Amino acid sequence: xxxxxxxxxxxxxxxxxxxxxxxxxxxxxxxxxxxxxxxxxxxxxxxxxxxxxxxxxxxxxxxxxx
Length: 66
Fold this sequence. Notes:
Keywords: Cell membrane, Membrane, Transmembrane, Transmembrane helix. InterPro entries: DUF1656 (IPR012451). It comes from Pseudomonas violetae. This is DUF1656 domain-containing protein. By secondary structure, the protein is mainly alpha-helical. Helix content is about 65%, strand content about 10%. The chain is built from two helices and two strands; from the N terminus they run ββαα. Strands 1-2 form a two-stranded antiparallel sheet. A hairpin with a 2-residue loop joins β1 (about 5) and β2 (about 10). The longest helix is centred in the middle third of the chain and has 23 residues, at about 15-35.
């Protein structure tokens, strides 16, 4: 079960922890996909990146809950 984190008096629930942890993972994935050239085949790049971030967040939430 995920625990709540308190940093300097600021309460971070597990969902916020997952969102913050997903950001560097998403940036690394985005950089790799751009480097490989996968994003050339994507119709709407911003929608794809948003969906990728949501998928990374969902995967982290599932892993944190186990």
